[in-house]
């Protein structure tokens, strides 16, 4: 029986690289989104809500719920489930969220 | 052919057909239309084709056996091969936010670009006909604790596994309603997760009441059997007529409470049982993603599970002439049905644009196949329609709207004391549904609460922007300064 998702599909990925989450080192595989890299490190929350300050992370996994908004290299409101992880990316917990730059 | 920025593409415009969505339906539609001689643009938010069902790891992840996470992978590799051999312009990383009919009857498709649509280069595509194959998103019902990290959509867990080869935890309860749960539990277990239970709110008995639809769809029955045996192999118990009615944990999932449900989905007192786990994958079926069409005023039909799909004629055309739809936009029915409808729509578009009659043998065959699969989809959809009793899972402080953090108590107050009778009024009074997701996550719940146990009006899918758009993009359109050639993904 396969033990990991990578075993199951016989993954032979390109060499892994590092990103950081709130300063902590996280190993990512090329081709993973920021959310996948964080899940891979056991991190499930990277945002706190505006009113309750509650932790949130990826929920819908397909770009629809906007719960996974993260600050990537200083830029807030990036959907971590869509944005590919790149070597050296600095992901930081996003506190609250603003509607400043997008219209919904 | 995937477009690169250096390619002079503008000379192909207007395209004969623009297809929005490169899942099973859109892929089948695009390659069929191209093979029939049409100039086709295929737009999708994702960098890769395949849609939700055939979602697969990016090439850099080097998956030697991507098919291990899918059945019927050959159907996809066939479509992918035909796409590569065709001259379809594949516009990856294009998030369509609006489609407009121009005075001369052609369509303009507006998209923002980039992995998450935040690239500065908007795109604008013109086409004589439009095929919407935008698929569906997962229907969610709230319950105490559903906003804790570790609670994820069932389809979402599947999507993250299929594309990123990751799991949200080691011990994952799968819950909600609908056949997708079995597929999700099977793949999570095959990928090494422990699945202590699949918790299904409906019974599967209602399927048995429609033996004709079952017998006529051997492929679907075989698929269910396949998932069934995979679950047996991994010793995953399936609890029917039960629901997760509470999630426990402070900052992440530690356990769930599972309760038996009566026929109306009311928890039966005294049946609550705690299951330790570190993640919960939950979903209650799928909702057709149709706002691009409803914003244009397209007619809809109420589906047996209470969601809205587009009303389509026998050849997949919406009530707006020149606008076709295929796949989950017309009602949820699986990848096989989506493929059939995509091909059928493409043949109908080609007949219209090339001035031929759309009556050949292949079309008749596709129509028969579609009708058979739709009949099965309707049986499935009816069996998993939420019972009104799910509202008893809520406590007043359960957030119903995840984005704006609006609790059930405030919504009940808006309904009972302020007289709100529909989701729109509740939204104006409480902000529920006003956040980033535009009510996709809470729409079903808010509509049910507003109906006070009566038949909920499905939330109207009218969103002026199908995806959020930067103010600067809108401003540039106003100034007429939008780059008319599509931006690179
Ligand atoms: C999260 C999720 C997971 C699922 N997992 C499974 C599974 O494991 N097994 C199973 O049998 N079924 C699954 N399904 C059901 C599956 O979606 C259907 O069986 C099948 O994929 C339908 O094909 P389609 O072409 O209609 O839609 P899809 O395959 O969903 O394709 C729609 C495409 O349209 C694109 N799109 C949507 N809106 C826009 C826009 N505005 N601009 C540009 N592109 C857009 C999307 O990116 C997507 O690629 C899942 C559904 C969801 C929502
Ligand atoms: S997880 Fe829902 S948008 Fe990213």
TrEMBL record, chain A:
SUPFAM superfamilies: 2Fe-2S ferredoxin-like. Keywords: Oxidoreductase. It comes from the Bacteria. GO terms for molecular function: iron-sulfur cluster binding; oxidoreductase activity. Pfam families: Fer2_4. This is Putative molibdopterin-dependent oxidoreductase YjgC. It comes from Streptomyces nymphaeiformis. The lineage of its organism: Bacteria, Bacillati, Actinomycetota, Actinomycetes, Kitasatosporales.
UniProtKB/TrEMBL annotation, chain B:
CDD domains: GlpA-like_Fer2_BFD-like (cd19946). Residues 400-447 form the BFD-like [2Fe-2S]-binding domain. The keyword Oxidoreductase applies. The keyword Transferase does not apply. Signal peptide: none annotated. GO terms for molecular function: oxidoreductase activity. InterPro entries: BFD-like_2Fe2S-bd_dom, BFD-like_2Fe2S-bd_dom_sf, FAD/NAD-bd_sf, FAD/NAD-binding_dom, Metab_Enz_Cyan_OpOx_G3PDH, Opine_Oxase_asu/HCN_bsu. Residues 15-329 form the FAD/NAD(P)-binding domain. Pfam families: Fer2_BFD, Pyr_redox_2. Keywords: Oxidoreductase. Gene3D superfamilies: BFD-like [2Fe-2S]-binding domain (1.10.10.1100), FAD/NAD(P)-binding domain (3.50.50.60). This is NADPH-dependent 2,4-dienoyl-CoA reductase/sulfur reductase-like enzyme. It comes from Streptomyces nymphaeiformis. The lineage of its organism: Bacteria, Bacillati, Actinomycetota, Actinomycetes, Kitasatosporales.
């Amino acid at each position: 029986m396969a033990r990991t998702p990578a075993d199951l599909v016989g993954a032979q990925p390109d060499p892994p690289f590092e990103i950081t989450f709130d300063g902590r080192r996280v190993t990512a595989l090329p081709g993973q989104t920021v959310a996948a890299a964080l899940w891979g490190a056991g991190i499930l929350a990277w945002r706190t809500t505006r009113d309750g300050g509650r932790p949130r992370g990826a929920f819908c996994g397909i770009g629809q719920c906007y719960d996974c908004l993260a600050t990537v290299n200083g830029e807030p409101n990036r959907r971590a489930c869509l944005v590919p992880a790149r070597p050296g990316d600095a992901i930081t917990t996003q506190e609250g969220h603003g509607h400043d730059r997008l219209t919904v | 052919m995937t477009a690169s920025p250096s390619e002079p593409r503008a000379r192909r415009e207007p395209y004969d057909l623009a297809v929005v969505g490169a899942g099973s339906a859109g892929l089948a539609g695009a390659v069929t239309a191209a093979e029939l001689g049409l100039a086709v643009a295929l737009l999708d938010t994702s960098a890769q084709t395949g849609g939700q069902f055939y979602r697969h790891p990016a090439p850099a992840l080097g998956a030697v056996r991507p098919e291990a996470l899918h059945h019927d992978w050959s159907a996809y590799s066939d479509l992918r091969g035909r796409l590569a051999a065709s001259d379809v312009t594949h516009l990856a990383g294009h998030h369509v936010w609006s489609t407009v009919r121009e005075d001369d009857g052609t369509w303009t498709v507006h998209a923002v670009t980039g992995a998450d649509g935040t690239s500065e280069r908007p795109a604008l595509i013109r086409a004589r006909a439009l095929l919407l194959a935008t698929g569906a998103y997962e229907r969610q019902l709230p319950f105490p604790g559903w906003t804790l990290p570790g609670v994820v959509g069932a389809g979402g867990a599947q999507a993250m596994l299929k594309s990123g080869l990751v799991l949200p935890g080691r011990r994952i309860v799968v819950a909600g309603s609908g056949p997708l749960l079995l597929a999700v539990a099977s793949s999570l277990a095959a990928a090494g997760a422990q699945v202590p239970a699949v918790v299904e709110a409906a019974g599967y008995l209602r399927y048995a009441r429609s033996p004709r639809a079952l017998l006529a769809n051997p492929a679907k029955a075989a698929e269910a059997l396949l998932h069934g045996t995979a679950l047996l192999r991994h010793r995953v118990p399936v609890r029917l007529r039960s629901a997760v009615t509470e999630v426990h944990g402070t900052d992440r999932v530690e356990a769930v409470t599972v309760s038996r449900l009566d026929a109306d989905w009311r928890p039966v007192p005294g049946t609550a049982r705690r299951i330790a786990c570190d993640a919960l994958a939950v979903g209650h079926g799928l909702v057709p993603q149709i706002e691009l069409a409803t914003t244009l005023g397209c007619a809809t039909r109420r589906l047996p599970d209470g969601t809205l799909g587009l009303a389509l004629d026998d050849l997949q055309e919406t009530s707006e002439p020149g606008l076709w739809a295929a796949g989950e936009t017309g009602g949820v029915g699986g990848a096989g049905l989506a493929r059939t409808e995509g091909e059928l729509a493409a043949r109908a578009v080609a007949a219209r644009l090339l001035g031929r009659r759309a009556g050949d043998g292949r079309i008749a065959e596709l129509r028969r196949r579609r009708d058979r699969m739709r009949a099965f989809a309707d049986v499935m959809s009816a069996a998993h329609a939420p019972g009104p009793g799910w509202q008893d899972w809520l406590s007043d402080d359960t957030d119903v709207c995840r984005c704006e953090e609006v609790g059930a108590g405030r919504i009940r107050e808006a309904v009972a004391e302020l007289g709100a009778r529909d989701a729109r009024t509740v939204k104006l009074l409480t902000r529920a549904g006003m956040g980033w997701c535009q009510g996709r996550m809470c729409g079903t719940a808010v509509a049910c609460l507003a109906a006070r146990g009566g038949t909920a009006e499905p939330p109207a899918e009218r969103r002026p922007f199908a995806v959020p758009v930067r103010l600067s993009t809108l401003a540039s359109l106003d100034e007429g300064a939008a780059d008319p050639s599509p931006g690179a993904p």
